[in-house]
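Annex B. Sample input.
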Amino acid sequence: MKVIVLNGPMGVGKTTVGKYIAEQNPGTAFIDGDWCMDLHPFVGNPETRAMAVDNILHMIRNYQACSVCCMAVLVWLMDDPQVIRSIMEGLSAMQAEVKYVTLVCDRENLISRWNHDRGCEWRTDYWLNVSLKSLPGFESMENTIDTSGLPVDRIAELVME
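Annex B, continued. Sample output.
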């Protein structure tokens, strides 16, 4: 099974691109890593991240066993190297064909995207500042695609290349 892993800061467009890829490729499962760590109130610590990784890998394993599923797209903000390592090791153990990409954009594009996505409960000024501060860390990761000014269909093409 092919697995596309989309990483990047909040608001960069991981969900939009991931859903687009899933919609364009029949038999594709869409997994938002946030679903696998949906605690109220939110708690982001080593225990909950490990739980989310286990949940994600469990879902992918189940999709892999499904005869109508041929690909999965995972979108999740992964700024912890241990989380990335755990996901990649788990996918390797499943013998999945993995494409890992980190989406980034410039500051102005992130602000613009943020302001146009009012349906998300995380789109507050506080979290925008957190996301802006995280940009340099994501820009330094491997396999980055700068999505600044690009439409979703072009970003998806770059991811799938």
